[in-house]
Amino acid sequence: MTTWLVRLDPPLDATGPRVAVKDAIDVEGLPTTAACPAVGDDAQPALADAPVVARARAAGAVFVGKTNLTELCRPPDGVNPWTGTPRNPLDRSLVPGGSSSGSGVAVANGEADIAIATDTGGSSRLPAACCGVAGLKTTTGRLPLDGVFPFAPTMDTIGAIASNASGLAQAMSLLEPGFELTPYDGAIGRLRLPEITIDPAIDQAVDEALAASGRVIIDVPLTGWLRAGVAAGLIINAEGYQAHQHLLDGGRMSDRVRDWITRGKYLDDEMITDARELGRQFRTQLDILLNRYGVLALPTMISAPPKLGEESRYDFTALTAPLNLTGHPAVALPIAGPGPVPPSLQLVGPANSEPHLLSLATTFHQ
Q1: Computed over its alpha carbons, how large is the radius of gyration of the chain?
Q2: Which sequence spans correspond to the domains of the chain?
Q3: Which string of b and e fits 125-160 if b means at least 16 CB within 10 Å?
Q4: DSSP readout, 10-57?
Q5: pTM, whole model, 2 decimals?
Q6: Is-contact 264 274, C-beta < 8 A?
Q7: Is residue 307 within a helix (H) or strand (E), and if so which, with residue range?
Q8: Cα separation of 227 and 230, whole Å?
Q9: Which helix (H) or strand (E) holds 162?
């Protein structure tokens, strides 16, 4: 199956949660290929677990394998011409989402309870949304990135995928010793983004889920989201070029990924400095809102996932990448709605608010 790059058979007496690891994260004794021949052709077995894997192992995780992804963690659609495209278990004609495609599919298929993944522009939240499960982007810098394949170092974060919010809370307890949920009793600010076109059915599903939560819901108009997404893309391209330019000479990769890497070569320092400054300003803007409302809510994706072959026309990261720019934690949750793939609600909290953000997330019917 294209879901797995390495499948492991756990001991028969194993009792801990079954955990899959994205093949951008080191697992001792296994190569980390980033699902790209430019890396995988010469990849050697890792000498040690990445710290997040070591923590999970020490906490009793039972590893079931390393999951597929898109090349070098880059494309957000889940499509990979080298290692195959994991099939969306809800509708095989739809993309699975990326870059942590195999992780989302493994959890949705019930082949893993938890997947340890990464999130640079939505890489955990998008496959979760496409496959009808839950995804977490942690606060930037909260969990160590040692032993993790770099995409854009200032935007990279550890992520997790599970069938629901309770599973994400369990994932955090594996990744961070001593992690505990903290009840959240505050309001929720419902972000309205006039610059972004969102399918009305998705917006309605989010509104209905929030109304049914019993919380105080306050509409919060916000401008600047589109510019923040552009700034995030510029930084990702610039840092991606610095991280991956050495792979351009002779390394096997698809033309689209080669083109994406090359784009970063032509971004000047002033442009990136301006993008980082915009990011700081937008983070302050969100912090002001979070101080006022506690948690912010919006959809995870602008519409239902596109069909395979139509992914190039879809803006996957429109609602996710700005939160990598600002560093805030975010949770993607499946909610009731039309179509084979349930809409996904995204909850955003202040930096390092995972305990109360995940506590709130567990109260939503999924």
Answers
A1: 19
A2: 4-361
A3: bbbbbbbbbbbbbbbbebbebebbbbbbebbbbbbb
A4: --TT--S-EEEEETTB--BTSB--TT-HHHHTT--BBSS--HHHHHHH
A5: 0.98
A6: no
A7: none
A8: 5
A9: strand 157-162
Can you tell me whether residue 150 is helix, strand or coil? coil
- Given a cut of 80, whether residue 365 has pLDDT beyond it is no
Token pair 């700081």 is at which residue? 280
Alpha-carbon span 149 to 72, nearest angstrom: 8
Query: Which tokens sit at 356?
Result: 């109360």
Q: How many residues does the chain have?
A: 366
Which homologous superfamily is 4-361 in? Amidase signature (AS) domain (3.90.1300.10)
Residue 366 has pLDDT above 90, yes or no: no
CA of 40: how far to CAs of 43, 65, 247, in Å? Answer: 5, 16, 11
Cα distance between residue 228 and residue 233, in whole Å: 9
CA distance 226 to 224: 6
What angle, 0 to 180 degrees and rounded to 10, lies between the N-to-C axes of helices 269-293 and 225-244? Answer: 130
Query: Does a cis peptide bond (omega within 30 degrees of 0) precede residue 99?
Result: yes
Rounded to whole angstroms, the Cα distance separating 73 from 267 reads 21
Asked whether 184 and 62 are in contact (CB, 8 A), the reply is: no
Phi-psi region at 228: left, alpha or beta (left = phi > 0; alpha = psi -120 to 50) = alpha
Phi, psi (rounded to 5 degrees) for 346: -110, 125
Q: How far apart are CA 197 and CA 60, in angstroms?
A: 44
**Residue 41: CB atoms within 10 Å:** 11
Residue 312 tokens read as 């190039």
State the Cα–Cα distance between residues 89 and 81, nearest whole angstrom.
19
Which DSSP letter does residue 94 get? B
Nearest CA to 68 out of 127, 10, 18 is that of 127
pLDDT of the residue at 104: 98
Which pLDDT does position 251 carry in this prediction?
81
Q: Supply 100's token pair.
A: 């942590």
